[in-house]
Amino acid sequence: MTGEQQTVDATVPVEPDPDALLSVRGLRITVPSGAAAVEDVSFDVHPGETLGVVGESGCGKTLTMLSVMRLLPPGTAIADGSILLGGEDVARMPEKQLRRLRGSKVAMIYQDPMTSLNPLMRIGDQIAEGLRAHGWSRSDARDKAIEVLGEVGIPKPQRAARAFPHEFSGGMRQRAVIACALVLDPELLIADEPTTALDPTIQQQVIDLVVQLQRDRGMAVVWVTHDLGIIARLVSRMLVMYAGRVAEAGPTREVFRRPSHPYTSGLVGALPSPGGGREDLIQMPGAPPQPGQHPAGCPFRPRCPQAVERCATDLPPLLDRGREQGAACWVPPEDWSA
Amino acid sequence: MTLRFLARRAFGAVLTLFGVSVIVFIVLRMIPGDEITVMLGTEAAALSPEQRASLEAYYGLGEPLLVQYTSWIGNVLTGNLGVSLRSGASVSDLVARRLPITVQLAVMSTVIGAIIGLLVGMVAASKPGGLRDAGAQGFGLLGLATPNFVVGALMIGVLSTQFGYLPTAGAYVGFFENPSINLQQQLFPAITLGTALAATVMRTTRGSYLDMRQQDFVRTATGKGVHPRRVRWRHVLHNALIPIVTITGIQFGYLLGGTVVVEEIFSVPGLGRLVLTAIAQRDFAVVQSTVLVIAGLFVFVNFLTDLLYALIDPRVRLS
Amino acid sequence: MSDIAQASSAPVGAVPSRRPRLTRLWQTKSGLAGTIIVSVAIILAVLAALGLTPYGPTAQDPTVRFQSPTAAYPLGTDQFGRDVLSRIMSGLVSSLLVAVSSVAIAASIGTLVGLVAGFFGEWIDRTIMRINDVFFAFPAILLALAIVSALGSGWRNTALAIGIVFIPLFVRVARGPVLALREVDYIQAARVLGFSRSRILLRHLLPNLGSAVIVQVALALSWAIITESSLSFLGLGTQPPMPSLGLMVSDGRNLVGQGAWLLIAPSAAIVIVVVGLNLLGDGLRDVLDPKDDR
Questions:
Q1: I need a labelling partner for C28 at 20 to 30 A (CA). Which of B38, B87, B173, C175 fits?
Q2: What domains sit in chain A, N to C, each tagged with a CATH number?
Q3: Is the pLDDT score of A73 beyond 80?
Q4: What does the CA dihedral A130, A132, A135, A138 come to, rounded to 10 degrees?
Q5: Which whole-number Å values give the CA distances from C164 to B183, B258, C124, C238, C274, in the listed order?
Q6: Are A24 and A38 in contact (CB under 8 A)?
Q7: What mean pLDDT comes out for the span B31-45?
Q8: Which of B212, B217, B242 to mutate to test the interface with A (most CBs of A within 10 A)?
Q9: Residue A32 and residue C12: Cβ atoms within 8 Å?
């Protein structure tokens, strides 16, 4: 009777992990219509670790990460759950305390470098602004901004600091955005698809830069992406999201070798050579459901080749699949039809 | 700011001014019949022969239109705006005396309108869909739909019946004669003129503020731990200012047109009133030159707007 | 909240509605309010034009001077005992007459010029737009004043003057879409097929300007009413004895001690009609402007 209600996933215990840098539990995010765009999402990021979050656009991965910095767009709100960052719950933090955390403990780099810099402000001022907000003096902040511009590989940082964003190329702008994020040495960097808007040649440079900076500073990095190639090469643990929920979680190696959610299986199957190519997610037939229009049961069922009767009625929790791997699927991989 | 940018804008302004002068010239040649007599009717007889000769010389009457135009524009360029057909006074003198009054009125109403519009617009944008937003939107709709003369007439009506204050009573006092009386006399005309501007600025402020608020760079700034107040001013408002400056510059033309009406209502002896009196007296020498001066003022303000625009937006400055 | 409810009840990704556009106009709040206000104004004006005002607009009755609004005189009477409501209705006739004629002039000439500028491009476009900028350099009412002063007052000349002044608005509105359409495939195809320029202009390009021009017409009508009543207020528009709203405001401000309604009623009439036209313009833009289709 109770055998089917296996205890949920070994990778994410119910209680927040006290050793984790970031420990998210039961996160629920609602959009202006009141529907949940993210539901029951839990994960941990340990100091210095690299986590990958994959999923189609609209699956809630960006909202999840924005909520870690409490940068959700107006009307979108954290409705439930906790987000412990260094032991403090970001979800319930007063604005003032939040400001202290943003930039210094956790920072973010964004998808589109063309729009994430203020067009009317000099690059150097935009970097120094974060330092000023955390109590640095004007001249110290200016010197530090120039220093960081050099660190992110921008030539002639003295001059670059006085430039406006429109004088920079896309790659240069993304470097400036990275400089803005890293100037206060955050313990956690969230990289939200920082390469999708860039030329392929520039993409690799930006990835290499983040990897090198992570190595130098020992910070933890969360890569939000739909590029499985990045995940395969850079990330030790990964989270696959579908329709606002975690579909599968576990060590990257295990997930790639033995996907235990049909959705992950579809994604991984699309990779030409494991760990080599940098293909985007394949286009599976069908589209993920919109928030508020989830079918009963498993949200992936309409697109799932392995669906059984139960999937239409019961929503699967994240079930333990061993080897620190968990998947939200009623059908274990050994029972899958070929 | 690059010199080339300045030069290009200045050249454009000069070209527009040239076109403006041509149009003014043509419009006032639309009057059918022989010039001076038609212009003055029976009044022509009142002119002394010297006045008549100087008028004919000034307008190059009897000459082909092109010659007339060049002689007029040549005079204008040397600062000679002609002679009033009625009083024989120099139009340059008339304009010089009244221009500062109109400029003061326009500047005061621009300042009043822009400040009110900005504040109301920001209040509206701070909570879109709220009660205060609805109020601001209503103000915007009414402000745009109420002609200057209605605002002015209602204002005088309320002031005179409810407060026993008649803004039009008493002779106009220059600013340097008595600043406090002068400002009092200019205040209500300025508020009247500023109303429509406030409505336009409010709508633009609300729209562009809401637009800018959801830009990615605003999120970036917040993500750096910047204080919300600084985010609002340094990032949101600064960027929202670009369309606001543009619309204020464009509205300045509307404002200058409005001075004609408002100066008439409040008995302010500015350029607008000069034009109206001249039209009533069919004094076309004054009409022609004064209209040119007012349009020139607008072109000049648009040039200034371009410069201001470039000061705010480095993309314009350096492109 | 009601917006959200409406939005979510529509199927996501449905084909854009093909309902008649007027019905959609009445579903927007501003479109409905604007339609009602403008219709009432038109009905009142038509009644007045047919002589169906409660009293003669110029009929004087010394026994009822300065009457406050009563059942017999809903908006009171003026210093000659004339019915204010009847005068406002007749005033609407001249306001709408001038507004409609002037916008008809401006829209037809302006659209055509804009069409030509956008279609031929090159130096023709540059010249036309340069001239257009020159017209924009005049405060509208000042240019209208200058033209009226040259032509003489009266409603025909007022309409002509306002019409000339508003031409550039339509040039700009028409030119933009034509510039974009010029490169569109089927226009190119028509060119390749050797259709004459005038045929391409009139049969293929003009119909595509409909939306933009219609929205502009509604807004231009409201500005035309403001300009017309301003000119009348200054004594340079519609001439007595033809009643005009601008003149009524002008008279009313001197009589405000005897009757506030003499100032308030015509002022309110102007503001309401202009608000109505603005709302109608907003509604039309919401319905017709493809940029706002979400």
A1: C175
A2: 1-94+188-194+220-271+288-338 (3.40.50.300)
A3: yes
A4: 150
A5: 37, 19, 20, 17, 20
A6: no
A7: 56
A8: B217
A9: no
**A192: nearest Cα among A90, A71, A40, A53:** A53
**Which secondary structure element, helix H or strand E, spans residue A239, and what is its range?**
strand A237-242
Note whether residue C12 is domain-resident: no
pLDDT at A4: 40
Of C44, C42, C21, C23, the residue nearest C32 (C-alpha):
C23
**Range of the structural domain that residue C109 is part of:** 24-287
User: Does the CB of B157 have a partner CB in chain C at under 8 Å?
Assistant: yes
* Residues A124/A161, Cβ–Cβ less than 8 Å: yes
Averaged pLDDT score across all residues of chain B = 83
Put simply, whether B39 touches C (Cβ < 8 Å) is: no
Is C150 among the domain residues? yes
pLDDT the model gives residue A288: 74
Structurally, how many domains does chain C consist of?
Answer: 1
C2 CB within 8 Å of a chain A CB = no
Q: Do B260 and C141 touch (CB under 8 A)?
A: yes
Flag if B153 and C267 touch (Cβ within 8 Å).
Answer: yes
Distance CA A298, CA A325 (A): 19
CB contact under 8 A, B261 and C141: yes
Against a cut of 0.90, is the pTM above it?
no
C86 in any annotated domain: yes
SS3 call for A147: helix
Q: Which residue of A has its CA nearest to B127?
A: A74
**Strand, helix or coil at C162?**
helix
Q: Is the pLDDT at C108 greater than 90, yes or no?
A: yes
- Asked whether the predicted pLDDT for residue B192 surpasses 90, the reply is yes
Domains, chain B, with CATH or none? 91-318 (1.10.3720.10)
> Residue-wise over A296-325: b if at least 16 C-beta within 10 A, else e?
ebbbbbbbbebbeeebeeebbbbbbbebbb
Contacts of C7 in chain A (CB under 8 A): 33
- For A120, the closest of B227, B313, B318 (CB atoms) is B313
ipTM of the complex: 0.84
Give the per-residue pLDDT at A220: 93
Report the distance separating Cα B115 and Cα C71, nearest Å.
Answer: 44
- In this structure, what CATH number is given to the domain that contains residue C120? 1.10.3720.10
Does residue A76 contact residue A262 with C-beta atoms inside 8 Å?
no
A176 vs B160 pLDDT, higher one: A176
C198-225 per-residue burial string, b: 16 or more CB within 10 A, e: under 16: eebbeebbbeebebbbbbbbbbbbbbbb
Residue to mutate among C38, C88, C135, C141, with most B CBs inside 10 A, is C141
Tokens of B201: 């600025």
Residue with more model confidence, C159 or A305 = C159
Of C130, C226, C249, which has the smallest distance from its Cβ to B153's Cβ? C249
Pair of tokens at residue A218: 């020992």
Element (DSSP H or E) covering residue A45:
strand A36-45
Residues facing A220 on adjacent strands: A188
Gap between the Cα atoms of C22 and C31, Å rounded? 9
Chain C residues with CB inside 8 Å of A32's CB? 4
Q: Is C9 contained in some domain?
A: no
d(CA C225, CA C202): 30
Nearby residues of B16 by Cβ (< 8 Å), 6 or more positions away: B299, C133, C134, C137
Torsions phi, psi for C277 (to 5 deg): -65, -40
Percent of chain B with pLDDT over 70: 89
Nearest to B223 among A107, A118, A167 (CB): A107
Taking an 8 Å cut-off on Cβ atoms, the answer to whether B257 and C139 are in contact is yes
Residue A23 reports pLDDT greater than 60: yes
Residues C232 and C153: beta-carbon distance below 8 Å: no
